[in-house]
Amino acid sequence: MLRRLVTRRFHRELIAQTGNFARISWLGQPIWQNVLDLWTIQETIAEVRPALLIETGTNRGGSALFYAQLMDLMGHGDVLTIDIEELHDLDHPRIEFLLGSSTDDAVLARVRERAAAADGPVMVILDALHDRDHVARELELYAPLVTPGSYLLSQDGVIDEISYFADSRPGPLPANRAFLAAHPEFEHDRERNERFLVTHHPLGWMRRIR
User: Fold this and answer.
1) From CA 65, how far away is CA 30, in angstroms rounded?
2) To pair with 57 at 20 to 30 A between CA atoms, which of 64, 87, 107, 183?
């Protein structure tokens, strides 16, 4: 109990100190990610070696660039990233940028086309609008694209746990919980989620097991 309280206090202070990681960058490009979670993502990409990583929520493009440059180092994989607006001028041969809502039919058609053509594992990271209902919709649409043994990461369930984000509730966490209860083909990877004790993505790491 004491450990949980101390961990939660540290997490709140870390968010406040970094402005919720809003000033974090990757090679000068804003990335807006909890750096502890980013390390777990890096480990997972190295483990899974996705042929295609699908990201909803491009924002300033730093995370897509980070994933693509990891793939450069591995010599394998592409990134397909989606957002409703373009907030960057990035260009990288491994990244395809899609402009539109992650739930639009035209966007989904292209995403499904790329996933079907992928010559290897498909991994999904959901980091777009963190509204419960939108995340629930994304989970239903994007989960079928994840290949067995690979991962779906639903980000920022911390919105529902820490008072700093109270004005943004309900967020992803109830959507994650409902999805896992309804989809036995996915399991929560608790060890991955608790890799560094604090995470922005509670119940977020979901492994497809069948």
Assistant:
1) 10
2) 183
pLDDT at 167 exceeding the cut of 90? no
Tell me the three-class secondary structure of 78-114, residue by residue.
EEEEEECCCCCCCCCCCEEEEECCCCCHHHHHHHHHH
- Binned at pLDDT 50, 70 and 90, residue 8 comes out as confident
* pLDDT score recorded for residue 162: 86
Share of the chain above pLDDT 70, in %: 100
Helix ranges restricted to H, the chain: 2-18, 35-48, 62-74, 105-117, 132-142, 172-182, 190-193
Tens digits of residue pLDDT in 116-137 = 999 999 999 999 999 999 999 9
Complete DSSP assignment for 180-199: HHH-TTEEE-HHHHTTTS--
Average pLDDT of the segment spanning 44-70: 98
How far apart CA 33 and CA 13 sit, in angstroms, is 16
The b/e string for 127-160 (b: 16+ C-beta within 10 A; e otherwise) is bbbbbbebbbebbebbbebbbeebbbbbbbbbbb
Residues of 172-189 as b/e, b for ≥16 C-beta within 10 angstroms?
A: bbbbbeebbeebeebebb
Alpha carbons 180 and 190: distance in angstroms, whole number = 12
